[in-house]
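Shipment paperwork, digital attachment
Item: protein structure file
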Amino acid sequence: KLGVKAHTFEDPTGKYFLLMNNTVTGNSNPADYVAGAAINQVSTAVLGNTISSNSALAYAGLFVAGPADTVGLVKSNIVEANFSSEDYGHAAGITFRGKNTTGSVTRNIVRGNRGFYGAGIFVDGDIAPNFTRVNFNTVTRNKGFFGTGGFVDGGATAIVENEIIAWNETINGESGGAFGVDSGPATRVTLINCTVAYNPSYYDEYSGGNGLAISEDTSDSVTVDVKDCIFWRNAMLPRAKEINAPGSGVLKIAFSTVDQSLQSNAQLQLGTGMLRTDPLFADPQNDDFHLKSKS
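Attachment content:
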């Protein structure tokens, strides 16, 4: 069964759906996509809900999608313990998807979800441009294959700011970053002032990079800019790397702390202001990533 569904087959102009202060839990859709809440083809605000323990083939938790001229706001929700069961299925926590749409995913707690790609927060352009601002979310203890905490794909443009992405891990010894960016066309991501820490996975030469990974084919263009971020203690397992950009995309990083020596090349371009000193988190074991006064 599906917990909440809102959909219009008409022109979405002037139509709006509000989902606010609800508990959506325990729904199961084992033979199809989406179990918690699906909001499609209409502008929406999803505010202050708890969406938990739902299961489906993919998109088990919250799925927001729309065409051009729709906007979405996903704010102050708890999205936890949702499970997407399909191999290579996308998303379990929050999905924001659509061609030429605009949205904001902000101040949510996303934890304990499990899915193959983008178990925590998944932003997808659906093979076309969209613009999404993702900020002030706490994304922890999700499990998946690639982009376990956050995943941007399909030509989307995402500004990712002030995120905490921690304690997410890959399943079955697979490789893939806590934050993953995949082929487009022309997927573009900017990370600013984000903390990506204690996310274990395994490295391989194609998609590994425990903190941040770019995996793309050579026919598409992916651009990632990283500024004022911390990548710490992600490379905890054998052969692990904090950051990896093995494809033909470009990753630029500056004024950031990375717990590993990085070698600049055509795909991984290092700017000024790079540090490798302990940021001195207050209490990372209990998800307190404030910096101590001595930092």
